[in-house]
Amino acid sequence: MQSESIEEQLFSFRNCVCEASLACTFPNLLVPAMLTQGRCEPQLFPASVARLKQTGCTVSIFAAGRTMVMGSSSEFNSRLALIILCNHINTILPWLHCRVTRFHVVNRVASVKLGVDLDIERLASDWKWSGLWERQSFPGFKLSQADLNCTFVIFPSLGKTNVAGIRSSSYMPAIARRMGMLAAYTIRTPSDDEEDVE
Q1: Which CATH superfamily is domain 113-197 in?
Q2: Model pTM greater than 0.85?
């Protein structure tokens, strides 16, 4: 358990996207919009969208009671946002009996800086069958990690890498170990070669 927490500390989590059901329905989306002081433009998006200041998350509420939480840094914050939302709705409309059910993580985005520049051109050449590099439009190399259900987006400067598509924190130790493969693509400097000679 201790090694897992150390590996997870290498990453900073920028966004956690979660879904859940409120176990109630909203035939009129203006109702949750008014209750949460949110926005509702059904002709553009079939949900009421509210920003919860307590957690810094954005919650989309659909007519069938399905919700999507975005902008959270953790699974805990996402769940807390929905609990606050349910408590608020139940205070005003207690007969709805809102509660959080079927909560699950859809996507987590983590980032890490390796602290060394990477040879993206060689990396893209070696992994061209499982990656995508569009150097003219995007500087990062997208490398699929199908067995870990995520994608690495690797940038040359300081080895900055974003990991998208993480479904569970249980994958983080394996993801951290997989990052070790990038050490082979470090750009060596003249000072590095001098140190090897000594």
Answers
A1: TATA-Binding Protein (3.30.310.10)
A2: no
